[in-house]
Specification:
Blueprint: H1 2-57, E1 62-69, E2 73-78, E3 81-88, E4 91-98, E5 102-105, E6 112-120, E7 125-128
Parallel strand pairs: 5-7
Antiparallel strand pairs: 1-6, 2-3, 3-4, 6-7
Amino acid sequence: MKAQVALEYVVLIIISLAIIIPAYYFYYSDASEQIRVFQTKKLVNDVAEEANHAFLLGPGTITRLNTFIPQGIATQVKNHTIIANFSTRAGDNQLFANTIPSINGSLPTSPGAYQVTLIVHEDETVEIS
C-alpha cells in the first residue's frame, strides 16, 4: 500500500513537471522576444528623434545618444529612414522610423550599450556614427 502511494506521488510529480517546464520555457522565450522587440523599437525611435532634434538645432550641432543595440538585429541608415531587421518565431520583421533630415552613417553591429554621435553638416545632412 505504501509503495503504491509513493508511486502515485512520483507519477503526479512527473506529470506536473511535464506541464510546468514547457509552460515556463514558452513564457520565458516569449518574454525575452518581447523585450528584444521593445529594445529595437526604442533604438530606432530614439535615434530618429535625436537626428530630428539635432537637425532643428542647425549645422555644426553635435549630439550624443546613449543607446542599447539588442542581439540579433541588423540596422541600416539611409536617406530619411532608420531600418532595423530582426527575426522572431513569427518570422522576419522590420521596424523603421523616418527622419526630417537626410541621414547617413551606421549604427554599431554588435549588441551592447553604445554612445552614438550625431553630427549635422553644412549641407543639412545628419551623420550617425
